[in-house]
Amino acid sequence: MIIDDIMEYASHYDLLIFDINGVLDNNHNAKVEVLSAAFPQLSDLEISKVNVAMERAYEKSKSSSTASHIADALLDNGISIESAKAEELSAAYYDLNRVNPEIIEMLNSLAQTKKVCLYTSLSKAKVDYITSKGTLSDDVLVFSRDVQLESKPSIRNLEAILEQTGVSADRAVLFGDNVAVDIMPANLLGIKAVLVTNYVDSFIRL
């Protein structure tokens, strides 16, 4: 259970930095199920490629979700879809990007005694959408792409988060799902880095 694991780290650090996509909204299996049901003719590999394309379209979009993002992502993978079907798939798929209320409750609870930051490539408007606007405590720092110094991966962004929270690197921990984008910059800066992923059965630390 990711909440139990996070709480264990929380007891040892003063600042907890979270990527959102793939960490707090980790609904990968549910998204794959939605796509598999919609496109039973596609192989598991093709479904995975479509899922990645839709996630990228979602991150780049300015609004919370639109059927056009679905259609564009599918077309990039050689799949055409009617607008009505795109609307239906959009509602089902993108709603899974919402953060579980239990996760929101955990973040709000942590923010009472710790510094908590959401570090994301999403816009602030989209963060409001996926956290069900109004449920996330004002004590949680949202470091969205609107205020970032540069795009991820970025050491400068992490330095800015440390400065805003007044916490040193050795007292911070970052949870991310991408080694190059999240984990490596944190590690180089001296922040404890924790990889959250569905894709690794085991690993060898060098």
Question: Any overview of this molecule?
Answer:
It contains 10 helices and 5 strands, in the order H-E-H-H-H-H-H-H-E-H-E-H-E-H-E. The protein has helices spanning 2-10, 20-24, 28-38, 44-60, 67-76, 83-94, 101-110, 124-130, 155-165, 179-189, and strands spanning 15-18, 115-119, 140-143, 172-176, 192-195. Strands 3-2-1-4-5 form a 5-stranded parallel sheet, with helices on both faces. Helix 3 (28-38) packs across helix 4. The two termini are 27 Å apart.
Which structural class matches the secondary elements?
A: alpha/beta
Strand order of the biggest β-sheet:
3-2-1-4-5
How many beta-strand runs? 5
Unreliable segments of 5+ consecutive residues? none
Spatial separation of the terminal alpha carbons: 27 Å
Anisotropy-based shape: globular
Largest sheet: 5 strands, parallel
Helix content estimate: 40-55%
Mean pLDDT: 84
Helical segment count: 10
Radius of gyration based on Cα positions: 18 Å
In N-to-C order, the SSE pattern is: HEHHHHHHEHEHEHE
Tell me what portion of residues adopts beta-strand conformation: 5-15%
List keywords for this structure.
206 residues, alpha/beta, five-stranded parallel sheet
Give the SSE map:
Blueprint lengths: L1 H9 L4 E4 L1 H5 L3 H11 L5 H17 L6 H10 L6 H12 L6 H10 L4 E5 L4 H7 L9 E4 L11 H11 L6 E5 L2 H11 L2 E4 L11
Parallel strand pairs: 1-2, 1-4, 2-3, 4-5
